[in-house]
């Protein structure tokens, strides 16, 4: 029976997986693709299947065939935002298929799903096709080995190829979108352009956050225009042959120029194209101070101009502008990146904010991010906040004059519709929807009678008017492929809107007829222009106040105004045409649906020396497996101990489903807890019990249970440990540049139970309760943090036990020499620290540093000795830590650090290093949350 202890322990926890309420995922298979989806997303999965092979055939000749086998494409229909990702380990394409409410994929895309797949499939084919050194090794050691050069490829190269591909292979890509061009045109016009090294990564404190996209497109577009499209893969092949030389060496080999020179040539060409445009339109006068961050177009209210100001290092602010551009703060809100998440009532008393947060759906798998939207109202007189709606798919609110109701766009199937929401009750009513396309960016007339909105159908945009009194909707500005948006009522009879007609954004004016029975089109006038572009405007004095792009984000300018009557394109500009959707019935017959089983796939295997129980090197191999949905991860190690003449075996399994995570593992003939050549097993279960999202922060509670067992055959003795832990935290949302996060209050409490299983031995060995209270406070707009932490651990032994080896000073290398030499049954540690972000934006070989920080702290400990007396450690340990957020190629999230520890009284000194990859490892291997 004793020999079966580890096996029984594993069986209990592995079988518990069957009790998890998991969604039965489905799949449709084409010649090239395996499209994986939840039953709710079958229609869009079949739609993608209808053209996926065609997209593959258009890309494969240039970018390669990709990894062997069908390409897994995972559909995410839960997220209200549209997006896509290429993921390695295993190679997977993930598509967020909600219709884009901001049309970031390009304003004129007739079929945005095709454009999205084109972009992500380019990544897949480019990065997963075995090439060069690592490609050759992958044919032996597994498909993921070919991705080892990804940290060496600058992300501007991967993203530039994908943006160019979506533009070249399908109409309406971002390369043809003037809004996308603003990311680089504004800093180029202001002589604040970043270098090619900085273009390979995002720095949290610098705009734009995604600068690798415009950098890459400028480079790739210049290469194609100057040297031809075939040059792209010549450079890529040269790089893959010897990736350690970086992209600079590949450019020199192929072109005789390095990347900096080519980027300079690309910018010179673009500036030459821009110069006539910059000189043809006078710039407006500065209204509000230009600073890092964005000042979005304010709303005219009875109390004055009320606007939104965002900053990467600070919280967002709702401000009241004076006529000279100075401002005073009305309310502080979480960081908001765009005006479409914000609205103010006409009387200036109420603001509405859309807050996007992570969802808590149990059926979501790790590969998918589930987000939800809350709608909040803020009383600008009292500062009181109130949640109007929770967990909705709703954006772009627009309040009426007295702040009693609003209109917004709500996701339905593959489009957005117009809804009305009562602020007092939260009741919703559908005002308008069109099955052919999406309603976007609504605005309410000052008298509350009419709603102007943009209707986007198959990549064409029109300006429409809905009359809430007479009923019915009519077209104010006819549909064309010219981007059209940001409508604003200048008064009850006039609507201002922006458009990129002519290749540069300007603001236009159109009159609103008195009744809804008109038949002829209305006259369109351009009223505001800017050398870079005017994105939206409101009347101001005798002219206009408008929003424009600058190198730091968005800024406000004033303009006297012009009046140029233009000829607006007629309905259905034929330059771009929609791709017809497949007939649903025939598609279902052509693409049979079947159940998808999420089985782990081989990532890699490699020979690796293992360490046997006698601390001798032993030959062995390691293999890693992960499933496409990332629910299952398995790592297996096997070897042979030459010294002990026994086999060695380690295996770890991790499972994640929604809020639940499971883990299990076994070790055979390895070093156990108390002896060598022991067998051990562990199993763990953890779950987030609840998450409550507020406007400014969230609170969360989670529980974790881990069981461990060791069996020593030579002694016929087993050892068991149970660790139960609960954690509760409240944290404030942090701005993007907050390197160390923001305010936090956290409590963690748990207990460990130790037992021994042997004949003649009392099984109960001791209980060890522990706990930590942590407090962090953001001190200023510099985002420095004051951190206070109190931790305690106690032991209640049946035999000899000691609390002093726990809760060592931060950065201590181990218990030896750092714990009190006398036995204690209670130990408490107090730590006080100061965390200071350092705004870095510096290229390094193969990547860049997007942020860094310095920490200073001190800690000391107190004990209760086993004789009942109390003692102080009689030393104060001071420590400092330097860390940096490093991007290597397309690999993000690395935060290596070095910690220096010094005992002020004893003179003890230690240095410790952390590569910052612990979270990556813990997602594959099981771990313990016992006291440290």
Give a written overview of the molecule.
With about 950 residues, the chain is of the alpha+beta class. The protein is built from twelve helices and 54 strands. β48 and β49 form a beta hairpin. Mean pLDDT is about 85; it is low at about 1-20, about 570-590 and about 920-930.
Fold blueprint:
Elements lengths: L4 H11 L10 E4 L3 E5 L4 H22 L7 E6 L6 E5 L4 E5 L15 H17 L3 H10 L13 H15 L8 H12 L22 H16 L2 H12 L4 H10 L3 H22 L4 E2 L6 E3 L3 E3 L2 E8 L2 E8 L5 E7 L8 E3 L5 E9 L12 E9 L5 E8 L1 E6 L5 E8 L2 E8 L5 E5 L5 E7 L5 E8 L2 E8 L5 E8 L3 E8 L2 E6 L6 E6 L12 E5 L5 E7 L2 E8 L2 E7 L4 E3 L17 H7 L2 E3 L5 E7 L2 E2 L5 E2 L1 E7 L5 E10 L4 E12 L2 E11 L7 E16 L3 E16 L4 E16 L11 E14 L6 E15 L6 E10 L1 E2 L26 E15 L3 E3 L2 E19 L4 E3 L4 E12 L2 E4 L2 E7 L5 E6 L3 H5 L10
Helix pairs in contact: 2-3, 3-5, 5-7, 7-10, 8-9
In short:
By secondary structure, the chain is an alpha+beta fold.
Total number of helical segments?
Answer: 12
Strand count, sense and closure of the main sheet? Answer: 20 strands, antiparallel
Query: How widely separated are the two ends?
Result: 33 Å
Rough shape? globular
How large, in whole angstroms, is the Cα Rg? 31 Å
- Beta-strand proportion: 35-45%
Determine the fraction of residues in helical runs and give it as a percent range. Answer: 10-25%
Provide the residue-averaged pLDDT.
86
Q: What structural class do the secondary elements suggest?
A: alpha+beta
Low-confidence stretches: 1-22, 572-589, 918-932
Query: Count of DSSP E strands?
Result: 54
């Amino acid at each position: 029976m004793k020999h079966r202890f580890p096996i029984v322990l594993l069986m209990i926890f592995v079988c518990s997986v069957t009790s998890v309420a998991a969604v039965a995922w489905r799949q449709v298979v084409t010649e090239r693709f395996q499209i994986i989806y939840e039953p709710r997303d079958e229609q869009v999965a079949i739609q993608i299947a209808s053209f996926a092979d065609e997209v593959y055939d258009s890309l494969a000749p240039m970018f390669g065939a990709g990894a062997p086998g069908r390409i897994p494409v995972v559909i995410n229909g839960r997220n209200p935002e549209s997006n896509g990702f290429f993921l390695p380990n295993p190679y997977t394409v993930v598509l967020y298929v909600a219709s884009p409410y901001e049309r970031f994929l390009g304003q004129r895309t007739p079929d945005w799903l095709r454009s999205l797949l084109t972009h992500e499939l380019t990544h897949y084919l480019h990065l997963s096709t075995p090439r060069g050194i690592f490609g050759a090794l992958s044919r032996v050691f597994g498909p993921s080995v070919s991705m080892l050069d990804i940290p060496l490829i600058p992300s501007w190269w991967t993203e530039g190829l994908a943006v160019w591909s979506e533009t070249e292979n399908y109409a309406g890509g971002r390369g043809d979108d003037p809004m996308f061009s603003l990311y680089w045109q504004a800093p180029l016009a202001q002589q604040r352009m970043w270098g090619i090294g900085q273009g390979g990564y995002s720095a949290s404190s610098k705009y734009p956050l995604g600068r690798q996209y415009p950098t890459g497109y400028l480079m790739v577009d210049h290469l194609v225009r100057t040297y031809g499209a075939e040059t792209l893969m010549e450079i890529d092949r040269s790089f893959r042959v010897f990736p350690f030389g970086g992209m600079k060496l590949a450019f020199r080999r192929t072109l005789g120029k390095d990347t900096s020179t080519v980027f300079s040539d690309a910018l010179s060409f673009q500036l030459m194209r821009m110069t006539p445009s910059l000189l043809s339109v006078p710039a407006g006068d500065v209204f509000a101070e230009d600073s890092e961050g964005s000042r979005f177009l304010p709303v005219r209210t009875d109390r004055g101009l009320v606007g939104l100001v965002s900053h990467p290092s600070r919280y967002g602010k709702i401000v009241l502008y004076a006529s000279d551009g100075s401002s005073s703060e009305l309310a502080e809100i979480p960081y908001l990146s765009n005006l479409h998440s914000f609205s103010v009532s006409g009387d200036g008393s109420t603001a509405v904010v859309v807050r996007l947060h992570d969802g808590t759906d149990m059926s979501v798998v790790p590969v998918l991010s589930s987000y939800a939207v809350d709608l909040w109202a803020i009383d600008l007189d009292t500062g009181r906040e109130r949640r109007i709606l929770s967990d909705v798919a709703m954006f772009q609110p627009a309040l009426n004059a007295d702040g009693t109701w609003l209109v917004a766009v709500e996701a339905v199937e593959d489009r957005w519709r117009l809804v009305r929401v009562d602020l007092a009750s939260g009741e919703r009513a559908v005002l308008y929807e069109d099955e052919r396309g999406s309603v976007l960016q609504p605005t309410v007339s000052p008298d509350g009678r009419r709603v102007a909105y943009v209707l986007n159908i198959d990549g064409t945009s029109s300006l429409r008017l809905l009359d809430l009194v007479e009923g019915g909707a009519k077209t104010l500005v006819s549909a064309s492929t010219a981007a059209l948006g940001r409508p604003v009522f200048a008064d009850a009879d006039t609507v201002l809107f922006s458009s990129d007609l002519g290749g540069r954004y300007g603001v236009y004016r159109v009159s609103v007829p008195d009744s809804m029975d008109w038949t002829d089109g209305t006259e369109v006038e351009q009223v505001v222009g800017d050398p870079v572009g005017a994105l939206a405007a409101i009347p101001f004095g005798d002219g206009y106040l408008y929003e424009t792009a600058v190198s730091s984000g968005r800024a406000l300018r004033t303009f006297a105004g012009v009046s140029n009557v233009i000829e607006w394109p007629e309905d259905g500009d034929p330059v771009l045409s929609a791709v017809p959707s497949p007939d649903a019935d025939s598609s279902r017959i052509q693409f049979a649906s079947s159940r998808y089983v999420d089985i782990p796939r081989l990532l890699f295997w490699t020979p690796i020396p293992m360490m046997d129980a006698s601390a001798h090197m032993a030959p062995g191999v390691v293999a890693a497996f992960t499933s496409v949905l990332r629910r299952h991860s398995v790592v297996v190690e096997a070897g042979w101990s030459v010294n002990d003449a026994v086999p060695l075996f380690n295996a770890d399994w991790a499972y994640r489903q929604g809020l639940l995570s499971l883990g299990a593992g076994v070790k055979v003939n390895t070093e156990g807890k108390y002896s060598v050549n022991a067998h051990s097993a562990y199993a763990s279960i953890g779950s987030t019990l609840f998450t409550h999202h507020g406007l400014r922060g969230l609170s969360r509670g989670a529980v974790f249970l881990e069981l461990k067992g060791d069996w020593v055959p030579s002694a016929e003795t087993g050892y068991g440990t149970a660790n139960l832990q609960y954690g509760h935290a409240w944290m404030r949302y942090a701005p993007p540049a907050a390197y160390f996060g923001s305010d936090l209050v956290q409590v963690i409490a748990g207990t460990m139970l130790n037992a021994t299983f042997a004949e003649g031995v009392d099984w109960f060995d001791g209980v060890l309760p522990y706990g930590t209270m942590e407090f962090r406070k953001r001190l200023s707009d510099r985002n420095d943090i004051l951190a206070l932490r109190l931790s305690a651990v106690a032991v209640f032994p049946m035999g000899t036990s000691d609390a002093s080896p726990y809760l060592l000073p931060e950065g201590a290398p181990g218990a030896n020499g750092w714990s009190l030499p006398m036995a204690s049954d209670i130990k408490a540690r107090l730590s006080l620290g100061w965390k200071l972000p350092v705004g870095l934006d510096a290229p390094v070989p193969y990547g860049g540093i997007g942020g860094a920080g310095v920490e200073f702290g001190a800690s000391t400990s107190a004990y209760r000795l086993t004789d009942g007396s109390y003692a102080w450690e009689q030393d104060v340990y001071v420590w400092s830590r330097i860390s940096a957020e490093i991007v290597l190629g397309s690999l993000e999230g690395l935060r290596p650090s070095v910690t220096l520890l010094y005992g002020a009284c004893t003179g003890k000194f230690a240095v410790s290093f952390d590569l910052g990859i612990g979270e990556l490892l813990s997602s594959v291997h099981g771990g313990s949350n016992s006291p440290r």
